[in-house]
Each structure stands twice: as C-alpha cells, then as structure tokens.
Hints:
It is a single chain. Helix 7 (174-181) packs across helix 8 (188-201). This protein has helices spanning 8-15, 20-24, 32-40, 86-93, 122-127, 152-157, 174-181, 188-201; strands spanning 43-50, 53-60, 67-70, 73-78, 96-102, 109-119, 137-149. By secondary structure, the chain is α+β, with helices and mostly antiparallel strands. The termini are far apart. A hairpin with a 2-residue loop joins strand 1 and strand 2.
Amino acid sequence: xxxxxxxxxxxxxxxxxxxxxxxxxxxxxxxxxxxxxxxxxxxxxxxxxxxxxxxxxxxxxxxxxxxxxxxxxxxxxxxxxxxxxxxxxxxxxxxxxxxxxxxxxxxxxxxxxxxxxxxxxxxxxxxxxxxxxxxxxxxxxxxxxxxxxxxxxxxxxxxxxxxxxxxxxxxxxxxxxxxxxxxxxxxxxxxxxxxxxxxxxxxx
Length: 204
C-alpha cells in the first residue's frame, strides 16, 4: 500500500502535538469524577490479548455493574455467555486489559487500562448475585490509567439518536448467520424462534 506511515516520527509530524487537556485528563487511579461515570455505565467493552490474538468483548448489566472497590481496583462479574471464554483465556495468560465504558445519552466515554486477575472467592461471587444467581467468576482489575474520551466519535456516529436506530429486519438475524456459516447444517429458523425466550431465561 503506497503512502504508508512507518515510524512514530512521521506519525507525530502528521498529527502534531496533543492538546494539554488530552494529557491532563489521564490519571493513575479512580477519582470521584471518573467513578461517577462507571457507576452510571450499563455497558463496557473489554479488550484482552493472548497467544491466539486479540479479543474485544461486550459486557453489560444494570448501571454500575462494574464495582469501584477502591481508587486502584475495579470488580466486574462475568455473567452468563457462550462459554467460549476468549477474554478469560487471555487474562489467564496475559493480564493486560482495556475497558471502554459507554453511558446511553452521554457523549464522553471512559477508558481504563490495567492488569486483571480472575477471582472465584465465594463471598465475592455471592456479592454479585442477581435473583440468587452468582457469576462463576469476577474479574478484578488493578488500574494503571484512567481517562475520558471526548464526544466526537459519539456525535459523528449519532449513536444515541433514536431516529438513526436500525430496524432488526434490515440485517441478517443470528439464526440466518449461523445457517450461512454452517452451510445450512444449522437450523437458523428454529434458532431465531427460540432465541428471545432463551435470552430471557438465561441472562443470569
């Protein structure tokens, strides 16, 4: 590919110096202002890296489902999923993680980088129980850096604009995708019919 950037020096010449505010906003601990973002966030993307490569996994629950234990520690329950365990496999072998918190209606996002471990301590698991169902594990993250991202990406995407929401029928359904990738060995229609009830009964 022609005209590629191949050095940090070229990159810095192209983009120039970062603003003072973009550097000042990064801290190494959870301050009250950033804690407010986490306690309001019902969604976070968890990025991990392991021998097989990268993973970015969506995580969501009620606002504040990621618990601020103290100024250096976050706790995130690992709720029921597909049991691929991509994120957890990566964490076991490489503790470096990145998190991106989103809050509906808010343009700014919050980024956290840190080191994670997986806890199965019984009392901790029970403290995250919902309807009597505890998670199988809790991801404990030691904070290295925290900073907010400005609203430009959210504004450009109009992510929270309800008039821009996409109707589900305009995209392939989960069952249709499974049928396609399995060359119709998978019954996609049956999968789609059963999915709403299965999701409802297996959230926790």
